[in-house]
Structure formats: structure tokens, C-alpha cells
Design a protein that fits this description.
This protein is an alpha/beta fold. The chain is built from nine helices and 16 strands. The chain has an eight-stranded mixed β-sheet with strand order 7-15-14-9-10-11-12-8. It has a six-stranded mixed β-sheet with strand order 3-2-4-5-6-13, with helices on both faces. Strand 10, helix 8 and strand 11 form a beta-alpha-beta unit. The two termini are about 25 Å apart.
Length: about 325
């Protein structure tokens, strides 16, 4: 670990938060990096690259050497070098992960967070990227995007793609009257957005990369996990006191890893009931069925940005007034 990475490896988040990178526009270059697993579906990955090109973006991509275990895209050192090289490339305006899987947690202590903070760029992904999205946001103040990876772009529905295009370009339209949204507990809550994949987020508890839960609007999703494991992880969050002082809770999609609609409904009902049990002494708003997760609906959410949950209107509003633009 270099001296800069060591300096910023502690548990105290950088303050102030809310550094917002500039938007990407047609003609700009986006870097594709491999922070986690190898490409398992080359056709989906190539289609995702084509979608980025159709958005008018130039692509900077270096194929990994497949060193290291077969569940990683490459060894830790190469994956860190790739991320740093793309971040240092002045033509690259943002980075999007090729896919998730596993591997981001292995990189955390080797990142040059001071350089990342001083050169704001979009960092985009979800699933295992929950580590980097929340950790980097908490430690540098940089707003990151919980959004698609390249391999998931082909299956996004049109609303998710439209929202991705808008936020990538720097426009943050509120989410209002979302089909399928269920208000589990009414009320209004305001706080910085944090969260993502429940399994990955749970693995951050007790590490220097644990995000700031207090005062946050926490959003959660997961895939291919049985009900008892999801129950255990939610209970773990509660036992750690991490559900006590948040400002709101948004439940995205929890799917069993296949297309059994009835099983999916039962799984989400179980999760919602358990969350209400665990938070019975709290009064912050809780929503279910928000379109974020591993399925076709995956609306982007800016991690670290302040937002307001308005249950009466079924509206999530992003607050950009206190975001500092560009270099710091």
C-alpha cells in the first residue's frame, strides 16, 4: 500500500461530502474496468459496449490478463493498476465496471483515495461494486452511481436506461409515482443515499470501508439468496445498531435467482415483514418495490447525494444544491 492509500485507510470519512463529477456527454470517453469477476457472458458484455457507443461515448478498455483465481478478472495488483490508470487518464470522464461478482473488497486498502478525491469522476456499477461505491463516497466525498455494469446494460428496461442516460449527463430528475412502489411505513425522510447489495454491504460491517449509516437513506437489494440468509443479514444490521438511526429505508428487488414469479413475491413479502419487525421502534419511512436490483429495472441512485423520501407523494427527490462541482 502506498503512503497515500495508508493515510486514507482509517474509518473516519472525509468531510465535507458531496463532490459531484461533471456529466458525460456525446463524444466523451468512458473507461471500462474489471474490479471483480471475469466476464461470464461475452455476448452481453459486447452488447453493453455497443450500447455505450450508441450513447455517443468513446470507450477506453484494456482486457484483463486473467491472472489470479478463476473467480477474479485478474490479480489484485493488475485490477488496481487498471483502475488507477483509467482514473489518471485525463480523457476518461467516468468509469463503469464490466461486471460484478466478487473481488472489490480485496482492492480497498490499495487505492489512492487522495488522488481519486482530487480528480472527481463518475464511478458506476452495482452488486459487488457496493464496496467501492460506498467506501469511496464515504472516504472522499465523491458521489458515485449505483447503476448498471456493462454486462447488465442489455437487459435494462427503457425507464432505467432513460434515468441512467440522464444521471450520467448530470441531470437528476426526481423519481415520482413509480409503478409497483409500496409504502410500508409513511412519513418523510431526508439524508444521504447509501446502500446497495445487502450481502456485500453486510461484509463491510466493522471494516474501515463501512459506510456512514447514521442519517442516511438506506437502500437494499439482493439476488439468489434464500430467505433465511436475507433474514440473517438484516438481523445482523439491526443487532449492530445500523438500522436505528437512519432517515429512511428503501427496499429494492429481492429475487431468488430465477424467474419463478410466485417465489419472488413470497420472498419480497417475507423481507418486508422482517424489516418492519426489526424497525418497529423507529418511525422513519420504509418503501418496498423500488426499481433497483439485479433484474430489468435498475434505476440509478447517486450514492452520497442527499435525497428526500416523500411517502405522501411517492416521490424520491435528489438534492444537488449542496454538491460541489468538479475539482476540489
Amino acid at each position: 500500500m502506498n503512503e497515500t492509500a495508508r493515510k486514507y485507510s482509517g474509518s473516519t470519512p472525509f468531510n465535507p461530502r458531496h463532490i459531484l463529477a461533471g456529466g458525460l456527454h456525446p463524444g466523451d470517453t468512458i473507461g471500462v474496468f474489471h474490479p471483480a469477476g471475469p466476464i461470464r457472458n461475452p455476448a452481453a458484455f459486447e452488447t453493453g459496449l455497443q450500447i455505450l457507443r450508441e450513447l455517443g461515448l468513446q470507450i477506453r478498455h484494456h482486457s484483463p490478463d486473467n491472472s489470479g483465481p478463476d473467480y477474479l478478472a485478474a490479480g489484485d495488483k493488475q485490477r488496481v493498476r487498471e483502475l488507477h490508470a483509467l482514473w489518471a487518464d485525463e480523457e476518461v470522464k467516468g468509469l463503469i465496471a464490466a461486471r460484478g461478482g466478487y473481488g472489490c473488497l480485496r482492492l480497498t486498502g490499495q487505492l489512492d483515495l487522495d488522488y481519486i478525491r482530487r480528480h472527481p469522476k463518475w464511478l458506476i456499477g452495482f452488486s459487488d461494486l457496493t464496496v467501492l461505491l460506498n467506501g469511496i463516497s464515504a472516504k472522499t466525498g465523491l458521489i458515485t452511481m449505483h447503476g448498471p455494469v456493462v454486462s447488465s446494460l442489455p437487459r435494462l428496461d427503457s425507464r432505467s436506461m432513460d434515468s441512467f442516460r440522464e444521471q450520467l449527463g448530470g441531470t437528476f430528475t426526481q423519481y415520482s409515482r413509480i409503478p409497483g412502489l409500496e409504502i410500508l411505513r409513511s412519513g418523510t425522510g431526508e439524508g444521504h443515499l447509501t446502500g446497495g447489495n445487502l450481502t456485500t454491504l453486510t461484509h463491510l460491517i466493522g471494516t474501515p470501508w463501512q459506510p456512514v449509516f447514521a442519517g442516511s437513506i438506506l437502500f437494499l437489494e439482493d439476488t439468489a439468496e434464500p430467505a433465511y440468509k436475507l433474514d440473517r443479514m438484516l438481523t445482523h444490521l439491526s443487532c449492530c445498531g445500523l438500522l436505528a438511526n437512519i432517515s429512511g429505508l428503501i427496499l429494492g428487488a429481492f429475487d431468488p435467482g430465477h424467474d419463478d414469479r410466485l417465489e419472488t413475491i413470497r420472498l419480497n413479502e417475507h423481507i418486508r415483514e422482517r424489516v418492519l419487525e426489526l424497525t418497529a421502534l423507529s418511525n422513519y419511512p420504509i418503501w418496498g418495490g423500488f426499481p433497483v436490483g439485479h433484474q430489468r429495472q435498475n434505476h440509478p441512485l447517486p450514492v452520497g447525494m442527499d435525497a428526500v423520501m416523500d411517502s405522501a407523494a411517492g416521490r424520491l427527490t435528489f438534492i444537488t444544491d449542496n454538491c460541489r462541482q468538479g475539482h476540489v
